Amino acid sequence: MPQAEQRQGVENAAGFHWAGHAVALLANGLGFHRMVIGPGCGLRQDDGRLPQGPVRNVVLAAGAAAEVLAARGSILPDAAVAGQVVRQLSGRHGCQSGQAPVPGLDEVATALAIVSTGWQDVAGLASAQAGSITPLAYSDVLALMENRHGTDIGRSYDLWRNACAGPFPH
C-alpha cells in the first residue's frame, strides 16, 4: 500500500475514533472545549471534564467502537465487533492503553449502541474532521450534528448487549 494511502487510512480511522468520543459525550449530556486527535485522544485521566466510572468508560469505548464499525463497514450488532473493540481497548491499539481500566462488556455495548444509533453524526463528524487541519471546536461539532440531543438508544443497546453477552473471538 502506498504511504499516502496508508496515512489517509490512519487519518480516517482517527477521525472516526474522535467522532465516536464526541457523539458519546453529547449523548451523555457532556460538552467539551475541543477534541484532540493523537496520544490520549484529548481525554486524559486527569482531564477533569469527564466523570469517573461508567459514563467515562462508555465515552472512552465509543472511540474504539466507531473506529471498528467504520473499518467493518457495518453498524449491525455482531459479537466479533464487540470482541474487536475489547481487544483494542485492552491496549493493542487503544488511545487509553495503560491509562484507564478496560471498560466492561456492558459499557462496550452501550458505546456500540450510541455509536451505531448516531452513525450519521459519527460519519459526518469524521468527514468534517478529515477536511480540517485543526480539531473541530464544540460549537463546530454542534453545528454539524443532525441530532444534537442524541437518540433513543434503548433498542440498539438491547441488540448490542445480546451480541456482547455471547462468546466472541478473542
Q: Can you characterise this structure?
A:
The chain contains 7 helices and no strands. The chain is an all-alpha fold. Helices cover 60% and strands 0% of the residues. The longest helix is centred in the first third of the chain and has 25 residues, at 3-27.
List the defining traits of the structure above:
single chain, 170 residues, mainly alpha, Methane Monooxygenase Hydroxylase, Chain G, domain 1, disordered N terminus
What's this entry about, in short?
This protein is mostly helical. It is built from seven helices and no strands.
**Assembly state:** single chain
Indicate the low-confidence ranges by residue numbers: 1-9, 43-47
Q: Please give the CATH class.
A: Mainly Alpha
Domain unit count: 1
Question: How is the topology of this model organized?
Answer:
Layout: H1 3-27, H2 54-72, H3 79-92, H4 105-117, H5 119-130, H6 138-144, H7 154-165
